[in-house]
Design a protein that fits this description.
Elements: E1 2-7, E2 10-14, E3 19-25, E4 28-32, H1 40-49, E5 57-61, H2 67-70, H3 73-79, E6 84-87, H4 88-94, H5 104-109, H6 114-127, E7 139-141, E8 154-157, E9 166-170, E10 175-179, H7 206-215, E11 223-226, E12 232-233, H8 236-246
Length: about 250
């Protein structure tokens, strides 16, 4: 587990090849995503590392319902039950009314490269035996309306990676939590560390994904906290242009 202080209210935490974020407002906390199922201990430890307790968390803002982003939520809720908030369509995905996720066959196809084999091993260790998961209690929230949660986060619809993918804007800090709509690195990426889309095998609709991140340019933010890779600072239009330009 690695923790990066973005500013006095936001910390980026890296678990097993995935990030979550801690947004503080006094003693209260909003958790943005929650890592893999077996990242749960690191999730708890990240709160302790910034001087907060599980009981300080008021809400979990979920970008999307892939196992590497929602996996720690059941273990967290066993110890401290809090609302899980996401966009209306992604709430359906979290409840597993349908499933959009890389398949076992697609994972095996990644084993032709050393980087792919390492990623598969790391992923299996982070997931098993909880490869199947759903969240039965998820609160759907409307896009573009600030929520009364620590950080005053605003959900931003960014479909493409999943049909209901939701980014989260923190206007007070100029930070946007982009989940997997816009990332800066991934073990399967050949692009190194730079603004980018995830490799195509992970994405449901890349055309929609590009439209979504191009719509981000109007947000009042100069810091991107992604679901994978280090944070990015700079002009949001420039960061988005780099990501779209790097896509096939």
């Amino acid at each position: 587990m690695d923790i990066t202080r973005i500013d006095d209210r936001v910390h980026l935490v890296t678990g097993t090849n995935v990030n979550w974020a801690l947004v503080t407002d006094g003693d209260a906390v909003t958790l943005v995503d929650a890592g893999y199922p077996n990242d749960a201990k690191a999730l708890f430890a990240s709160l302790d590392a910034i001087g907060r307790r599980l009981e300080d968390v008021r809400a979990i803002a979920l970008t999307h319902a892939h196992l590497d982003h929602m996996g720690g939520i059941p273990a967290f809720r066993e110890r401290h039950d809090v609302p899980v908030l996401t966009g209306e369509e992604e709430a359906r995905h979290a409840r597993r009314e349908y499933l959009e996720q890389i398949t076992p066959a697609q994972m095996l196809q990644q084993c032709t490269r050393g980087a792919g084999r390492r990623w598969v091993r790391q992923t299996l260790r982070a997931v098993l035996p909880k490869a199947s998961m759903k969240l039965t209690d998820v609160t759907a929230v409307p896009a573009d309306v600030a929520l009364d949660i620590p950080g005053g986060l605003v959900p931003v619809a960014t479909p493409g990676h999943t049909s209901g993918h939701t980014a989260w804007l923190m206007p007070a800090s100029g930070v946007v939590f982009t989940g997997d709509a816009l990332v800066s690195a991934h073990p399967l990426s050949r692009l190194g560390t730079r603004p980018q889309l995830l490799p195509a095998v992970f994405n449901e609709d890349e055309a929609a994904m590009k439209r979504s991140i191009e719509a981000l340019v109007g947000l009042a933010a100069d810091t991107v906290v992604p679901g994978h890779g280090p944070h990015l600072r700079g002009s949001l239009p420039d960061l988005v242009a780099q990501a779209v330009g790097s896509a096939p």
